[in-house]
Design brief:
Blueprint: E1 3-5, H1 15-19, H2 25-38, H3 51-62, H4 70-74, E2 76-78, E3 88-99, E4 105-115, E5 120-121, H5 123-134, E6 137-138, H6 140-155, E7 159-168, H7 169-172, E8 183-189, H8 190-194, H9 196-208
Parallel strand pairs: 3-6
Antiparallel strand pairs: 1-2, 2-5, 3-4, 4-7, 7-8
Helix pairs in contact: 2-3, 5-6
Length: 211
């Protein structure tokens, strides 16, 4: 199977991010110590003395999506698919993200379906795109739109459907404190947007295997 590498489109960086100077690791660790003190704890207690270092290291993973470009993951496509031009669906892509309003997690699954136009992309790359946007400070609505825009810009499919479902800890652990509540967001382009029957097919393929 021959791979085609498309011209790379770099995801734009927001003007706000361009202007921000990144604090040093020492400054970040000091900020964690302040938060520990604010809770009423002693940051010099044995169990907490290394917590600032651990928190900063964990942030490098939890918010590592800021360092990655989703377009790079999608630039390599495969045109030799033996004439296949029907729906490609990747279901149940697990992710965790953090609510940008409270910095607590929301956890769920993403489902991506598309009709290829010029070729198909490696299935793991779609999961990688989800991870890149999830590992940022997010809202579920914005994350859904970002996934769609990134895939649509690079692959230019005849139609793209994305459904994201998640439980938000900012709703389960604080505020109204309701556990087990799911939030669902969807966005469609191309044939999915124009033909309700294609949306129904997408939903049936997602849910049908779970019956």
């Amino acid at each position: 199977m021959d791979a085609v590498v498309k011209p790379l489109k770099i995801q734009p960086v927001s003007p706000e991010r361009k202007l921000l100077a990144r604090p040093t690791r020492e400054e970040a660790e000091a900020a964690v110590r302040v938060l520990i003190r604010w809770t009423g704890e002693d940051p010099d207690r044995e169990g907490l003395v290394d917590t600032p270092k651990r928190v900063v290291r964990s942030y490098e993973t939890l918010f590592g999506g800021y360092n990655d470009n989703p377009a790079e993951e999608l630039q390599r496509t495969f045109e030799d698919v033996q004439g296949y031009d029907d729906l490609v669906l990747v279901r149940d892509i697990p992710f965790y993200s953090h609510c940008e309003h409270h910095l607590v997690p929301f956890v769920g699954k993403a489902h991506i379906g598309y009709y290829p136009s010029e070729g198909v992309v490696g299935l793991s790359k779609l999961a990688r795109v989800v991870d890149i946007f999830a590992r940022r400070m997010q809202t579920q609505e914005a994350m859904t739109a970002q996934i769609v825009q990134s895939i649509d810009d690079v692959l230019k499919p005849r139609g793209l459907a994305v459904l994201v479902e998640a439980e938000h800890m900012c709703m389960a652990m604080r505020g109204i404190q309701k556990q087990g509540v799911s939030t669902v967001t969807t966005q469609f382009t191309g044939v999915f947007r124009d033909d309700p029957a294609e949306q129904v097919r997408f939903f049936e393929l997602i849910r049908g295997f779970k019956r």
